[in-house]
Design brief:
The complex is a heterodimer of chains A (342) and B (341). With 342 residues, chain A is an all-alpha fold. In chain A, 78% of the residues lie in helices and 0% in strands. The longest helix of chain A is centred in the first third of the chain and has 36 residues, at 2-37. Chain A is globular. By secondary structure, chain B is an all-alpha fold. Chain B is 74% helix and 0% strand. Chain B is globular, with a radius of gyration of 20 Å. Chain B starts with a helix and ends in an 8-residue tail after the last helix. The chains are: A mainly alpha (342), B mainly alpha (341). The interface between A and B is large, with 52 and 57 residues.
């Protein structure tokens, strides 16, 4: 009898996981179509559909969809997925429920690198900016992971969060200083808040392979990551090398958040919110958390991007501001909930 | 008398840092784009200097240096209080969002009311910064309330509000015209922009009222360092004291930020150093923090104005660069959440 109950419970869980995945995927598709339609001119979904299946080069709407709207929507999808995956990995590796690339210094590291590129590289192409953003994200992520490995107080999430906040402040000060001295402050600011306006196909082509590699790395460590969340000792006992997992996770975080920052500027809180929602929906197994985080992060960023375009028509609001306004209450809720046992 | 004992114990440190402060003061007075020798400075102060020397010393250097020292002391004391409240040696008005709240209020004021000539209102800006800082502090307190306020929740909530203010600042800043934008950015980075006597006048009353007000609360701060049921047992209304102290600390930070811009790390560094030197007694911690803060900011200003002269490096950036190695060292050697050094 007991085995039947267990079986039933397991089936229930599988059903729940399937439903969650399906609903998220459906939401993502609907939001993406809406996002393609929204803009200075509203384009109904039927036209969007036509432009994909029977493209007509003389139709200006079709042109607009192909050259502007679709790349933007796809960039949002991929960036959102990448940020959420990076957040999930960070939270797993550091066992810090508040880890998010924008809070613990990774995004500002990339921002500082971009400031340096704007100042010191005479002809900065898209590629140099991308490379610099990767480098900066790597430095930021490396420092944070270093902290969480060698700080004596490494088990306190507060220490890590504060360290990250301090690091962000430092990187921010340095990049502002550079930008002010060399008079590129507003350029840098526009880049920072840049969001997804002006996304092109090239952004998509850069992001896709990065996301694929990052995703493979993330999935590779998802099982050991689940074990790692139980603690280094247990993980070692079960034959996992915490060090190796951290290095792979580090590489994945750098690729994912570096690419996202390079393409879309500073978009915070996606990496914080999504893994939490996912965990509350489907539990603690990172083999499921990782793909669902990507889907849900994508949907959330597409939604935020829609919000960025419609809250203050005809102006665009920085999408980072939208995600922060969504994310801060969430962060405060987590801080309240975890305050006692952190 | 608690404070007398504390004063006696930390006397040597106070004298040492007063000496440091005087040395930096003299160096800062004599260096700059137009050097003035120490002899000339003495002559000028006794009324025998040239008109040019008088202009440089009285109108350019002295007010700026006095402002640097006042702000340094104010931010250091504000940080000391926040660290005591949150029982975490990493707390700082910059990291907790209080600076950002003040910054948001000021930038909103610039954005909505006056563009271009906003530097003309030395008494209104501090008021706005002050309101912003205190509002954010109260919001942090309110949102971390759940059957009382734990230090951890206070910190995390502060970080959250910092992010929120940052996002709103970004929205406002991007809508500014380039000139306002540049000004606002310099201001947010922490440059001593108000370097005239009237800003000294605007700042001094705050410091005269608030720093002693904090000092007389030192006993409560000392008791608060005990873990949570104890202060209540010892007859301290912990929550009421927390509120008062949070407001005082936010008011100090707000006044400083209004004139000095968003200077981070100083409120973290100075009290932490002071605690290392004199121990955790707030009766000695507060004055020593103030001295160290004044010394650090005056030094940072000296570096900032000479390193890339004639260009000024905002003093907030200098402080960040000095503060970071120290902070990293501190994080690596920290062992627990308490205020252990």
């Amino acid at each position: 009898m007991q085995s039947i109950t267990v079986l039933k419970r397991q089936t229930n869980k599988e059903v729940k996981v399937c439903v969650t995945f399906t609903v998220t995927l459906a939401a993502l598709i609907v939001l993406t179509i809406v996002s393609i339609g929204i803009g200075a001119i509203w384009i109904p979904p039927s036209v969007v559909w036509d432009s994909i299946v029977s493209f007509d080069a003389s139709n200006i709407h079709h042109q607009l969809i192909r050259e502007v709207r679709i790349p933007r929507a796809l960039t949002a999808v991929i960036t959102g997925g990448a940020l959420a995956a990076a957040g999930a990995i960070m939270q797993g590796m550091t066992r810090n429920p508040l880890a998010d690339p924008s809070i613990i210094g990774i995004t500002h590291g990339a921002g500082l690198a971009i400031a340096m590129a704007l100042v010191f590289v005479a002809t900065h192409t898209f590629w140099t900016l991308l490379l610099f953003a990767f480098g900066g994200a790597a430095v930021g992520a490396g420092l944070v992971i270093l902290f969480s490995m060698i700080a004596k107080d490494r088990h306190s999430p507060v220490t890590l969060t504060l360290a990250g906040a301090a690091l962000s402040t430092l990187f921010g000060a340095l990049s502002t200083g550079l930008a002010l001295y060399f008079q590129v402050a507003q350029d840098l600011s526009f880049w920072y808040a840049g969001g997804l306006a002006g996304s092109q196909w090239i952004d998509v082509w850069i992001l896709v392979p990065v996301l694929v590699i990052g995703f493979i790395l993330a999935m590779w460590i998802s099982r050991p990551l689940t074990i790692l969340t139980m603690g280094d000792e247990i993980a070692t006992g079960l034959g996992q090398s915490a060090g190796k997992i951290r290095w792979i996770g580090f590489a994945a975080v750098v690729m994912l958040s570096g690419a996202a920052v390079a393409v879309a500027g500073v978009i915070g809180f996606i990496g914080l919110m999504v893994p939490h929602m996912v965990r509350s929906l489907i539990g603690v197994d990172y083999r499921l958390i990782m793909p669902l985080s990507i889907l849900m992060g994508a949907a959330l960023l597409v939604l935020s991007d829609i919000g960025a375009r419609i809250v203050n028509i005809p102006f665009e609001t920085p999408v980072g501001a939208i995600t922060a306004i969504l994310g801060v209450p969430f962060f405060l809720y987590l801080a309240r909930r975890n305050g006692r046992d952190l | 008398m608690d404070w007398r004992i504390a004063f006696k114990q930390s006397r040597s440190w106070m004298l040492l840092f007063s000496l440091f402060l005087m040395i930096v003061f003299m160096i800062s007075l004599t260096t700059g784009v137009l050097p003035v020798t120490l002899m000339d400075a003495f002559h000028t102060f006794s009324g025998q200097g040239t008109a040019q020397q008088e202009l440089i010393l009285y109108e350019l250097r002295l007010p700026r240096m006095i402002i640097a020292m006042l702000i340094g002391a104010g931010l250091a004391v504000s940080g000391a209080v926040l660290q005591g409240l949150s029982r975490n040696s990493l707390a700082d008005p910059g990291i907790l969002g209080i600076n950002a709240g003040a910054g948001l209020a000021v930038v909103a004021f610039i954005f909505f009311f006056q563009s271009a000539n906003w530097g003309e209102s030395p008494f209104i800006l501090p008021l706005f910064a002050f309101t912003g800082a205190v509002t954010v502090a109260l919001l942090i307190y309110l949102f971390s309330w759940k059957n009382g306020v734990t230090p951890t929740r206070l910190l995390l909530t502060g970080i959250g509000f910092n992010a929120l203010c940052g996002a709103l600042l970004m929205v406002l800043q991007l809508k500014m015209d380039p000139r306002d934008f540049q000004e606002a950015t310099i201001w947010l980075t922490g440059s001593l922009w108000g370097t005239q006597w009237r800003y000294v006048l605007a700042l001094v009353p705050w410091m005269i009222v608030l720093i002693p007000a904090v000092f007389i609360q030192a006993k409560s701060l000392n008791i608060m360092q005990l873990s949570d049921p104890l202060p209540g047992v010892l007859g301290l209304h912990t929550e009421r004291k927390r509120r008062t102290l949070l407001v005082l600390s936010a008011a100090l930070a707000g006044a400083c930020v209004a004139v000095g811009g968003g200077i981070s790390f100083l409120g973290l560094l100075a009290p932490h150093l002071a605690r290392k030197l004199t121990g955790p007694n707030f009766y000695s911690l507060i004055p020593v923090s103030a001295l160290i803060g004044a010394f650090l900011l005056l030094t940072a200003d000296l570096i900032g104005k000479n390193l890339l002269a004639p260009a000024d490096i905002p003093v907030g950036i200098v402080i960040s660069v000095i503060g970071a190695p120290y902070l990293i060292y501190m994080l690596l050697t920290r062992t627990s959440q308490g205020l252990k050094t």
